[in-house]
Amino acid sequence: ALSKAEVLELLPGLLQATGTNVKALYSKLTSVQTAMGDPLFAPAELLVALHALNPTRDGIPTKALISAVDTALKNPGIFPQHTVAQALQQMESQFPLPLLFMRTIISALRATPRLKPFISDLISRLIARQVWLDRNQWLGLLMLVDSNGEAYFPHMLQLPLPVLQQVLGLNPDLHKRQTEPALRRSTALNFAKWAYSSRNPMQVLRPVTMMLDMLLQSEQAEQQQQQQQQPQAGALSTSALGPSQHPAPAATATPADSNTATLGANSHGMQQVQQQGSEAGNVAPAPGAAAGSHENLGASAGEGGVGDAAGAQPQDDREQDEFDLDFDALEDDEGEREEEG
Questions:
Q1: How many Cα atoms occupy the beta-carbon half-sphere of 289 within 13 Å?
Q2: Could you tell me which of 113, 167, 112, 178 has the C-alpha nearest to residue 143?
Q3: Number of helices and strands in the chain (H, E)
Q4: Is the pLDDT of residue 199 over 80?
């Protein structure tokens, strides 16, 4: 019988061999008895070994490696929930993190939603070790926040101010704003409103509130611009009509006027909150103190999570090289599941 070291050496070739039943291979490797009466691999150990493979070093294409890991995650009979959690915990201590680490977290959470509390704690530890310095892992973490909304918003408040600024799409450097990973616009807006709501159990420091205000005010300005453009578009469409066909001007205020007035009042309230925070120190008012005014701002973006803002697009195109780990395929799979639902 082959030793564990020999199997690990042959593993890249076995995963790519024509006709290989990968699920059967995993079952055999985790059930074959050694001379001591133990399986050759514990399931968690095998999952860690799969993540230790490197496309460049081991000659296995990235797509083949992704497929091998996905097969493992889709077979809870061999790799149950506690096994996946155990493997992720072991890989978390590695530096650098395995290539497919964050992608596996996303896939595992979709397959087993009950892992959410475990993954939330894991993300907190990843942020503490400055995961944003690893572009691929950081890209995956932001995708996780985009997909799960409020569940992971508290972790965004752990970020250093420069990193949070980029995540919210507020970096003054246009080149970095366009090229560095960031949350989707709709997610960033929902995060800002959540931070001011009673649902946020954490205090928000004044430098952070200034960023959130900037984001919400920019959304308010865009809404006002759209409202101003709508009457202009209507005037152009009626200019081709004859004099007798022109609609009579309305004598009452339009909904757009009411919305603009409401937004203006909310902006004034926000300025009062800032002034009070300045007098009290660097710590913002307790969560929810400004919820009334801020939750109304950007209302058209919705309250329900990612994708509420019509036409919102990711801040980055997430198409780099093969080491972006096929994150786009994960988004496509999610879209297909929503359509089937």
A1: 15
A2: 167
A3: 17, 0
A4: yes
